[in-house]
Write a structure and sequence with these properties.
The protein is α/β, with parallel strands linked by helices.
Length: about 900
């Protein structure tokens, strides 16, 4: 073989990004050779880093000192940071900064070129900067240096812009009315892309006394203090951590105004009778912690910038921190500085509400995964941190959408709602525009399924709007095809129920709109019947029922984590949410980014109850609020096509269920796993028999009575000639020959309490309930087969234990559980190669590749074949570079 030929083993991610880009905007990436269970750090990480970076390559790092951060000093005294005296805070902060200064001096004395960036004292003790990779080991050897971490890089959130209706889903208004909690005295930090403090809805009511005053903020800022500034009573502090200035608006050509949308969901306080909106906690104050800059050349941000914003939020006394951002398919790593910063914040009494991610699951938008590959969860970091509250997304009930006015053969029709994807507003199109039908918007070479298809042949789109169906080719490709042929706009209609949040591109210079399948098919039929269709954009808005109402959002990321921790934990509205944008504007966005601020606002309300009734501090304060929120969440019935049994969505998708704030205020009882003290159960690896104990604590002066029942389910799979596929729908597990779940629930004395039997929780007391699972003789509900025959590498066992008050006095409580039956590390980490059995191949892209890009074992003349297959007999390479 020719000398110098270097062969790489290309993992799944390297090829699959291209495939995902052509299948839909929600499927943006998968794991590159997942690390399982305990393979999350140590030598593997060290080797991986050394292979990833050159010694002279500049990297951004966090230098963490051995000295503990200020927050540890507070905890050692049994206090939270906010309870320390100002003089003690300053003393501890100065000691941390002095220690950092000594390390920085040592770095300079060693002639290590480092550009220092951020400094942290509260949740971490350390600083960040850029340095050559080869210098890291030298820095780690310096006195008082604990560890040097390479920072994570995060992409700017890209959701493109109905809060009016989503509050009803979580019972916020009823909570305001009956309990009077609206977020008074609570401070929520929003770590995001920015905020507009001058928006008309960013106000506190006259009767609300701000917790954080202008004088207090000014005392914390200045030459040696925080770098931000006071803005308004509603937004008492803001800072641009990315650009190191106080321009907190989200500016620039690609500004999404994501942070402003999130802030509005948390706590906008507008007049809804006059076009404004209210968030979940309208009287809470909001800290605008902008971590994405306004420089279009820097679209991302770094973990150390997050940590600095989090550090300052603790100093400012935040009760809740919202992080609607992250990276897909994260790993739980207690040594990760971001995850430890989050854990430290929770220990200080701060609720961390973090989005789960918008990547659905492994293979979404491509094919259903094989049943042999059970690990398809892609929940994001840093929300996988055990101490955080990670949030999944649920669809809103109604939509307030812009609409165009159509005419058919000159006759007016009802307005048709649309979503806009490109940066070009359709309002730029004056008067009525003619619409023409362009099929799937394909040109030759676009589609592997129909490579010769040309939907523009014989269609004159010059100066007209092209109506195109979703399918086969990406949204951007369809739009650019029409644009190149002179179209002044594109309307893409869905091929399934619901509206599309389309991918777009800066190359698109015309309006790019999407409409529902129903409206699109109607217009297409009229055009195909030679009727003339024209539309005008006249600023119309319509309220329409969301066709996806009552469902989990299709994009919401599945759990569990790679080490089988339970994530996500709760669900909130995140699909099609209307909220604030800058300059007194409003817009609709979708994503778990929109769900997390519902929970942040809700957490502020629940913390008001916790502070009033429990007087707890630190991690206990957060734990009580988290358990109440999870216990009282409402599990939602899976809307899958084959769920005849009425099972709930998997806890790996929705956590405990949809947040219900009114129930959270009403419940006198909390239900938690005895071993962990939390309102969820992570069984991890399990055999045929497993058990756990739940504690029910009654904090009221009256007895509480509940009927108890439990469910057991797994994934729905089906068998085909070419493989067994997992459709990620609820599938019951029954005792063989029955319709009974293999679950027994008993009291401590052994008496059965499952079903119509009751458990009594005396006033101000705690009782235990034992839950046992027995999978020795069971079948799945769909195929009637033993799960072992369907899942060769193990399967999930999950469900809910529900406590229902027979008198309907107290809210229902639910405790979700998840376990994995089998060996978690048995399944493969990497897709089968193109040289193996086709029935084992998922993407068909894992191969050996030469440095010049040639796939080994494939005839170069046939390499463009859509059904790429390799010949193992024709693969050869020299591992030591010999001829």
């Amino acid at each position: 073989m020719k000398k110098g030929l270097i062969v790489f083993f290309i993992f799944l991610l390297a090829f699959s990004n291209t495939a995902f880009a052509t299948t839909g905007s929600t499927a943006k990436g998968v794991r590159d050779g997942q690390q399982k269970v305990n393979v999350t750090k140590g030598d593997f990480q060290k080797d991986f880093k050394e292979k990833t970076y050159e010694k002279d390559e500049e990297v951004r790092v966090i230098v963490e000192l051995k000295d503990k951060p200020v927050i540890y000093s507070a905890q050692s005294l049994g206090k939270s940071y906010s309870e320390l005296s100002e003089s003690n805070k300053e003393k501890l902060r100065k000691a941390a900064l002095d220690a950092q200064s000594e390390v920085k001096q040592s770095i300079n004395q060693k002639s290590i070129a480092m550009d220092f960036k951020e400094s942290f004292t509260t949740v971490l003790n350390g600083f960040s900067g850029t340095v050559k990779y080869g210098s890291i080991k030298m820095i780690e050897k310096l006195d008082n240096v604990g560890k040097v971490h390479i920072t994570h890089e995060y992409e700017r959130p890209t959701e493109d812009p109905e809060m009016l209706y989503s509050k009803e889903l979580v019972n916020a208004q009823k909570t305001w009315q009956d309990y009077g909690y609206k977020g008074e005295g609570m401070t929520v930090a929003v770590i995001d892309t920015g905020i507009d403090p001058d928006h008309r809805d960013m106000i506190l009511s006259d009767e609300t006394d701000p917790e954080l005053s202008k004088e207090e903020v000014n005392a914390l800022t200045g030459e040696d203090g925080l770098k931000g500034k006071y803005f308004t009573e509603k937004v008492p502090y803001g800072h641009n951590y990315a650009d190191d200035n106080n321009t907190v608006l989200d500016l620039g050509p690609d500004a999404s105004e994501h942070g402003m949308h999130v802030s509005g969901t948390v706590g906008a306080n507008g007049d809804e009778d006059n076009g404004g909106i209210k968030g979940v906690a309208p009287e809470a104050q909001i800290l605008g912690m902008k971590v994405f800059g306004n420089d279009p050349e820097m679209p991302s941000t770094y973990g150390d910038i997050y940590i600095k914003a989090l550090d300052d939020a603790i100093v400012l006394g935040a009760d809740v921190i919202n992080m609607s951002l992250g990276s897909t398919a994260g790993f739980v790593n207690e040594d990760d500085p971001e995850q430890r910063a989050i854990a430290n914040a929770v220990d200080n009494g701060v609720m961390m509400s973090i989005s789960a991610g918008n990547s659905a699951r492994l293979g979404e938008g491509f094919y259903p995964t094989y049943a042999q590959d059970p690990d398809y969860g892609v929940v994001g970091a840093p929300g996988i941190t055990p101490e955080s509250l990670q949030v999944a997304a649920f669809e809103n009930s109604y939509l307030n959408l812009s609409a165009f006015n159509p005419k058919v053969d000159g006759e007016d029709m009802d307005p048709i709602p649309f979503l806009s994807a490109s940066s070009v507003s359709p309002d730029t199109l004056e008067g009525y525009q003619e619409v023409v039908y362009a099929g799937l918007g394909r040109v030759p070479g676009d589609s592997t399924a129909s490579p010769e298809a040309n939907d523009f042949e014989g269609v004159d789109v010059e100066g007209k709007i092209a109506l195109i169906s979703r399918g086969e080719t990406p949204f951007v490709t369809k739009t650019l095809n029409a644009q190149e042929r002179g179209a002044v706009g594109v309307i893409i209609y869905n091929n399934v129920d619901g509206y599309i949040s389309m991918a777009t591109s800066g190359e698109i210079k015309i309006p790019q709109l999407s409409i529902s399948k129903e409206d699109g098919v109607m217009l297409a039929e009229k055009l195909q019947n030679d009727q003339k269709v024209e539309i005008a954009f006249e600023g119309e808005e319509v309220k329409t029922k969301n066709p996806e109402a009552g469902k989990m959002s299709s994009f919401t990321s599945w759990g569990v984590t790679p080490n089988l921790n339970f994530k996500p934990e709760i669900t909130a509205p995140g699909g099609n949410i209307l909220s604030t944008l800058q300059d007194d504007e409003y817009g609709m966005m979708s994503g778990t980014s929109m769900a997390a601020p519902h929970v942040s606002g809700g957490s502020a309300l629940v913390l008001q109850r916790v502070d009033e009734e429990f007087k707890a501090t630190g991690a206990e304060r957060v734990g009580i609020a988290k358990n109440i929120l999870m216990n009282t969440s409402v599990p939602q019935v899976d809307k899958g096509t084959d769920n005849e049994d009425g099972l709930y969505y998997s806890p790996r998708r929705m956590g405990a269920g949809l947040m219900d704030l009114y129930a959270a205020m009403e419940t006198p009882v909390m239900a938690t796993e005895k071993e962990t003290g939390v309102g969820k159960v992570a069984l991890k690896e399990m055999g045929d028999k497993e058990s756990f104990t739940l504690e029910l604590e009654n904090v009221s002066d009256e007895n509480a009575v509940y009927n108890v029942k439990g469910s057991v389910q797994t994934d729905l799979v089906d068998i085909f000639e070419f493989g067994t596929f997992n459709f990620a729908e609820a599938n019951p597990i029954y005792k063989k020959g029955t319709k009974e779940f293999p679950i027994d629930i008993t009291s401590p004395n052994g008496s059965e309490v499952e079903g119509d039997y009751q458990v009594v929780v005396p006033a101000n007391s705690t009782v235990e309930v034992n839950v046992s699972l027995d999978l020795e003789n069971v079948v799945d509900g769909y195929k009637g087969l033993s799960p072992e025959k369907l899942f060769e590498n193990g399967h999930f066992v999950e469900g809910f234990v529900s406590f229902t008050d027979p008198n309907d006095t107290n809210p229902e409580l639910n405790v979700p559980y998840v376990g994995f039956h089998g060996k978690w590390d048995q399944a493969r980490n990497v897709d089968a190669t193109i040289y193996e059995d086709p029935s084992k191949i998922f993407y068909g892209e894992t191969a050996l590749l030469s440095l010049d890009g040639q796939i080994l074992g494939v005839d170069p003349l046939l390499a463009e074949d859509a059904t790429l297959a390799g010949s193992e007999e024709h693969v050869g390479f020299s591992p030591n570079g010999d001829d």
